[in-house]
Amino acid sequence: MEKVGLNLEATELRLGLPGSADEHDEKLSSCSYSSSSSSSVVIRSNKRSSPEESIDDEEELKSNKRTMISHHNDDQDKNVPPSKAQVVVGWPPIRSYRKNNGVQQQQQEQKKKGEEVYVKVSMAGAPYLRKIDLNFYNTYQQLLLALENMFNCTFGEYSEREGYNGSEFAPTYEDKDGDWMLVGDVPWNMFISSCKRLRIVKESEAKGLGCL
Amino acid sequence: MECCNKRRMMKESPESNFMNRRGSSCFPDEVLERVIGMLKSRKDRSSVSLVCKEWYNAERWSRRNVFIGNCYSVSPEILTRRFPNIRSVTLKGKPRFSDFNLVPANWGADIHFWLVVFAKKYPFLEELRLKRMTVTDESLKFLARSFPNFKAISLQNCDGFSTDGLAAIAADCKNLTELDIQENVIDDKNDNWLTCFPESFTSLEVLNFSILHNDVNFDALEKLVTRCKSLKTLKLNKSITLEQLQRLLFRAPQLCELGTGSFSQELTTQQYSELESAFSNCKNLNTLSGLWVVTPQYLPVLYPACANLTFLNFSYAPLDSDDIAKLLVHCANIRRLWVVDTIEDKGLEAVGTHCPLLEELRVFPADPFAEGDARGVTDSGFIAVSQGCRNLHYVLYFCRHMTNAAVATVVQNCPDFTHFRLCIMNPGQPDYRTSEPMDEAFGAVVKTCSKLQRLAISGLLTDLTFEYIGKYAKNLETLSVAFAGSSDWGMQCVLEGCPKLRKLEIRDCPFGNAALLSGLEKYESMRSLWMSDCKVTMNGCRLLAKEMPRLNVEVIKEDGSDDSQAERVYVYRSVAGPRRDAPSFVLTL
How much is the pTM? Predict the structure, then answer.
């Protein structure tokens, strides 16, 4: 049973299809959902799935680890449900077409469709402007971190009430209507689609914005 | 679901009158054929054919459409011998779990040898509807050449073809009325297949190409839509923009079913109002779908068309609760609603409030593999819908956890469920309030919903669930089971207790040979049984095959797996004997 703990095969990187190794090992790392259920919740070989649906290596590795954790739990207490959703072949039962064209994929596709949204970023007192690709980021947190790095400044805590409190600088942007807005008020996707350019202002200037 | 048009007159006194005259009926064959020919329901026709030889013959000569739920249960030769005058064929191929990657590629269900036989025996074939079959471009080209009267083709969940095949259909089927391509694995070669419809072609009524990824030739599409005045159903793909949609709607205000393209584009005020008026001109619209990539700010253009909508398929449009609520205010006539769980419980409350006529609800997960505190719908949303929509009889509900009490409340509010498919996405998930198994939930369903035909169960379930099903679900025809049960007894309960069971599909359950063999006498009355990753062995399957020669017992073997285990078993009745086209990994025992 020591094999279950280490299960080096699961984390081994190789060129073959994931899961095409020893079935025996996989059975050891399988988990049970009730006291006598079968040993089959494993990630099967990709031979089963059609090309476009093959589970990629990373997911496979992650899920092998998860099945190990779950097995461990079940040994101790048979009635405790798995704490995380297992990545099992064909579960949840959603058709491939829906999986491949569902909401997540759509959002990713939209980003990939050549939409590199480069906007200018200016900062008061800086000798020249910079440009960043907004689509490279997924959240405000990532964007602000990148800006902080680029301009060697900090933005402080964002709150709806007070904007960016506690530091010298604040991020603002010009929207489609030509107005200067504080970054962070609207949902991320709406922000990306309406942001024309960015400007890092001194906190004192930003407070002025907030008061309007 | 088929509707049964029971023609009682066929079964009462006229029958007993002439049945008493031995050997001959008092109607000439032509009249008998004419009368029987009016029967539409498959079940009725089946009953009628069993009465006597004359009726059997009248039925077989007058039959125009045939439905084959499992393409391997009969051969094209047997089919064409019995029914010489078929105009419309519906065929289903792979087991349903192939949708979830549980059936290897190249398993079979190829349409080609059927078409070859049909070309000889049914040269007047008009319609072909296929589900989960393999269809190659060669087959489509052969079809387009071989049937001069061909009118309608519908392909659902099929694979193996490309837009080349579509081009052949477009070019050669002069009388085509329907081209319906749904959720298939298709190679989109982006090669202007739409331009292959000749200029003289005007008969199209249904066009659905929503699954294609690439751009289509919009010019060709617009011209096609303009000249096909009978076009009733148009389902576009993502490449069609809002501006293009407006132009198409302007050409085809008579549409009844519309699948939009992308619903997000920067529109000027002018364009926005043109689109809005295009929608308000579509007085016959009853079905709306598509909305790929939706910008919620534009949803109001739909409002003028919403009052007559009966089916709204937003299952690819991740709206939030506010967006859906604002829309549903206008949709009082909705009978069927498909949504994504981004609308959350609050959105479902809006459904309950604004859609009292709702009969069918499907809620799909936006992010099925999310972990931690993923959002979505819960028990309270489910209850909210059931409170407002008392006519609900079909539900497909994906959630992360559920309670027994909530399900009991739901079925108390809506006791007429015919289809109850609950998918708790974490396998083996108990009632999240009481930590008990979900047995009582499904117990409530089967006890309360006497009309239940289809059931899909999930969550932490013991044999008790199956006892309930066997005891109460007397009208159950289809049962889907995953990660459930404690012993063979569970499956036995179902096999012994459900007289109308036709399809049983099981995965990852602790059912072994005893369970499998307890259904020996049952399987011939069923369409099929699927068991994967259970505890069935090769010996058990061999025994079943030996005892029941009219069943095909097939095991799908994986390389490197244990030889004594039968990981994936597919059992089905057949008059055609073992498959002649089985690939090497399918063993027929």
Answer: 0.76
